[in-house]
Predict the structure.
Amino acid sequence: MILDEIISIPVHESINIECKSRLNRNNSEGWLKTIAGFSNAEGGSFFIGVEDKSNKLIGFTRQDADNERNYFNNQINEHIFPRPTFKLSFISYQIHNKELYIIRVDVSESPIKPIILKFKNVPSIYMRREGFTNGATYEEIIAMSIKSLNTQFDVLDSDCEYKRENFTKLLAFYSEHNSGKELTDKALQSMGFFTKDKILKKGAVLFSDDYSGERTQIQCSVFAGFTKGSERIVTINRFNGNLIDSINYIMEFVKLRMNHAMVKLPDSRINLDAYPERALFEGVINALAHRDYFLEGTQIQIDMFKDRMEISSPGSFYQGEKISKTYDLSNIISMRRNELICKVFVKCDVMEAAGTGFDKIVSDYADADENHKPYIFSSSDHFTLVLPDLTYSLGIQNNSIPSLDVLPAPPISVYDEKILAFCFDTPRKASEISGYLGISDSTYFRNKILDGLVNSGYLMLNKQGNAKVYKTDIKKVKL
């Protein structure tokens, strides 16, 4: 029997499920990492008495299950702080007229983070991501702490006093986008821009005329070709300034360097910009509004390539899911990371209160073909909006992916050629491969498709640091 036969959740499709046939008594750190990682991420289910890769039921007698449960609890109490929230239950099943049990532990996402695993007096922080448990990144640790405190950077008190004359650029920006109206002190205070004692919030300081700190750092680059690593860099410019100047700087940088074309129609001709101005503006506002300002030493990156522009902002989607790659921008729901900054942009009429900025980008590219559709992806430390260059007729191309002649026989899946081509020159993680294919990074994808190619000898499985990577065996295929 396998696990799928006695529980209702689809085991092969979930990345938040881990199975162990027995708890390792000689090295409990391995499975304790999983519990800590679940607690620091979105939670998950941990099954004991189930073989890892096959999900075959191994099971316990009732007495052995009790012993396993007690050992589990003792190890959690000894090594993980604060104690994670979980529900432990026994699941019984019959085989050969004998009643056996497996143990199910449903781990909840912890409201207090980070959860720390202390083993051999060494404290560590782990994160569950993409079906694997690894050490948490610096950005993830900061994000966990902030989320635990339910605190946003921009609403914290600063040590600066509000003086209206220090915000002439914000006042002018508001007037420009509101038919000449004046932004009053009363309106600013009602948004929480400053306290009743005239103390500015930290988000408000970022709008002051003379702000030039590192929290608003921007890097704008132009590359001659399609990638960063192998192409000539045309220019790199860096900027530090207040949020209003940041908007204007990025817009001017792109407008001065983007391509323009003329499209002939039967009776007329129209001018075509590489990037629609409204889509560009929405992308810039989105990057500034949802940037993680707790992360010092980071920067918003504007990278212009031959076929596209990438707008990357520090911090993953706030309290949202990581996205490998999606063209479905309209259905992306991202909570506001910076409530005050977003309120100011909404007040200035450059951001929708309902969060429909992505809809405008989709609308501006509505008439474009499939190779000219914008998309977005996010990781643990940044999110990126990709705008195709409408004047580049071929659209977004991935010229680094070769074409192959020799494929597995018999075939493993319909994705064989794309996977082997994608991994031909560069080792790739499973999440990168699934993102490239546009499919879910599921247990089934890893166990059946990727492992199938590994077992057939077409893919080689290696490690880069703590991550598993896949590389095509070039002796098995040819270009």
Q: What stands out?
A: The two ends are 43 Å apart (CA to CA). The longest helix spans residues 62-79. DSSP finds 13 helices and 20 strands in the chain.
